[in-house]
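Good morning N.,

You mentioned wanting to compare the apo and holo forms, so I went ahead and generated the holo version with adenosine-5'-triphosphate. This is what I fed in:
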Amino acid sequence: MEYPMAKIELSNISHTYNPKDINPTYALNPFSMTWENGKRYAILGPSGCGKTTMLNIVSGLVKPSKGKILFDENDVTDLITEERNIAQVFQFPVIYNTMTVYDNLAFPLRCRNFTDQKIEERVKSVSDTLRLSSFLNSPARKLTADQKQLISLGRGLVREDVVGVLMDEPLTVIDPDLKFRLRRNLKEINEQYKTTLVYVTHDQNEAMTFADNIIVMDQGEIVQVGLPKDLFEKPRTTFVGYFIGSPAMNLFNSEILSDNSLKFNNDTIKTRTDLSKIKNKNVKLGIRSEFIKIATHQKENVVSVKVTRVEDFGNFKLITGKAGDLEIKSKVEREIPISTEELKLHLPAEKCCIYSDEKLVN
Ligand SMILES: Nc1ncnc2c1ncn2[C@@H]1O[C@H](COP(=O)(O)OP(=O)(O)OP(=O)(O)O)[C@@H](O)[C@H]1O
Ligand SMILES: [Mg+2]
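and this is what came out, ligand included:
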């Protein structure tokens, strides 16, 4: 079957839930974004940042205060959900308890007059993927909470004629093992059928393992769109550095010295960033703990720290140290013995990110 190929465009969208207030608060500040056909996107951000609002604007459950939604250049902003050909899966199961699992899965297709043969084919394929085949004749109410959510997911995936499948934290109620398998299944579905999948989550691991594009949001803003590698190595704002990664990115208040160097307690850190144009000399230095290692032969970018804690995580050790008021974390191989209280750590210049007003200086 042919899939409706469509690019989803959000053009100059903004949204407030209280437009009549004198000072309306914006759940989404103005932004534009394109979701290419057939890709997997994750929308990642803390509670209340606007993820669900964005999804509901695309599916038509919420009409944006400003801006347009385009599916392949066609303006669908005024179309209701049913006319948009979008499947949406919510955090909690939306199913018919009295119907059988089969009928629940068949329902979206029956509504659109698919043939019985086609319905059977699709229900079989989706129920195999979600391992619901042996329950097809049971009434949905007899299933566990997990399984009910699988039915919900199945109802989202059963239609082949959709522009995209939007999922709002669909696996929250599912146990971790199954979650992992389902994410892989979703990836396979996307690779096989080229259906655009958009997946909302506040869990970075879920986002990283699922998506090829991650949209990071904070307080109604899209702060970065990129591959996991981009978010990890070059967070565009200190928020992304802090929100992504475990532990969070090291961020130090610092001061620009001459020659693109920064002050780090009593030491100097050279960077590869042109800092000459920054007016405010107070900046932040960001560097991932993964890139900070115990200094061996290095002469530059070596800092002295007092070790305050060493945690053994089995596959690595996390050293926490202090340099004056600055706290620094370094992830090192677990075999490395750490006996001394004083350590010299190396911060490679190419891994240093400089933030001015919380934004990355390029
Ligand atoms: N129906 C509504 N009426 C008024 N305000 C709303 C409504 N829905 C959401 N909001 C507000 O809009 C902002 C964004 O909410 P939204 O539900 O989109 O966030 P979210 O990122 O999905 O959060 P969560 O991770 O908790 O689901 C929040 O401040 C929220 O309180
Ligand atoms: Mg939400």
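The chain is about 25% helix and 35% strand.

Happy to go through it together on a call whenever suits you.

Best,
F.
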